[in-house]
Amino acid sequence: MTAIALTIAGSDSGGGAGMQADIKTFSALGVYGASVITAITAQNTKGVSAVEDISAPVIAAQMEAIFTDLKVDAVKIGVVSRVETIEVIADGLRQFDIRPVLDPVMIATSGDRLLREEAIEALIGELVPLARIVTPNLPEAALLTGSPIATDRPAMVRQAEAIMRAGAGAVLVKGGHSRSADSTDLFFDGEELLELPAPRIETENDHGTGCTLAAAITANLAKGYSLKEAVGRAKTYLHEALWAGRNLRIGQGRGPVHHFHRWWPA
After folding, report:
1. CATH number for the domain that contains residue 182
2. Domain tally for the chain?
3. In what order do the strands lie in the sheet with 47-53?
4. Is residue 263 part of a domain?
């Protein structure tokens, strides 16, 4: 039977992040992708110039359409910028008994803010407790926990534990924003604490890395892998996509990773 994954996320008109990156990742990993659009961005490799949120009733209608027809095996949540958006998604997840992969997208790679200040509390209170796993980068983990950006492993552990106390099923604190030679992520599920290191790749083509990693976890969960296996396989896929994408020439700014590196060379 075909595995199906759903992304609930914003649209990136440049195609490197958001819903477009999620669908590419699902497809590259052999999973059928469906989508619920939460916002439309005017965006390219240089940044975000405009955002228009989709209304809560239309988001609810999209979720209803998907869940009453498709047998969805795993769900990923990306950009949810407003309180109303968060609340309607949380209602839908509870209605259809879904525990998603939550990528708390707050700031784009370009530095543009994607989550409104007043929505942070709603994200923590409504979506984090429903999440099977939350995948913040270092700045996002700091915002979620109200603490400084972690600069060492003990601080990352404390932030992971704090997010777990907020109700998450597991946490993956991503270390890509650190200044260390390796990009080490920290996985914690309440029992097992794992460091997932990878050599840091020097590249300007890193737009959409967070979306891609969370989507890869979701795709692997849809295919039946355990959470720990899904995270490990997703980390490998993203590392390969970053390495292969070094030679992509897309746009004038920070380009995307190469989602289809296993299918065609850059």
Report:
1. 3.40.1190.20
2. 1
3. 47-53, 32-44, 4-12, 74-77, 101-102, 133-134, 171-173, 185-188, 193-196
4. no
Cα–Cα distance between 135 and 173 in angstroms, integer?
Answer: 6
Residue 66: strand pairing partners: none
Contacts of 40 (CB under 8 A, 6+ apart): 10, 11, 13, 51, 52, 54
Q: What are phi and psi of 129, to 5 degrees?
A: -65, -20
The pTM assigned to this predicted structure is 0.95
Q: Could you tell me if residue 213 is inside a domain?
A: yes
CA–CA separation, 266 and 246 (whole Å): 8
**pLDDT per residue over 36-65, tens digit each?**
999 999 999 998 899 899 999 999 999 999
pLDDT at 237 over 80: yes
d(CA 93, CA 107): 24
Residue 256, in any domain of the structure:
no
> What secondary structure, in 3-state letters, does 191-257 show?
CCEEEECCECCCCCCCECHHHHHHHHHHHHHHCCCCHHHHHHHHHHHHHHHHHHHHHCCCCCCCCEC
113: containing domain: 4-247
Distances in Å between the Cα of 188 and the Cα atoms of 78, 103, 210 are 20, 15, 18
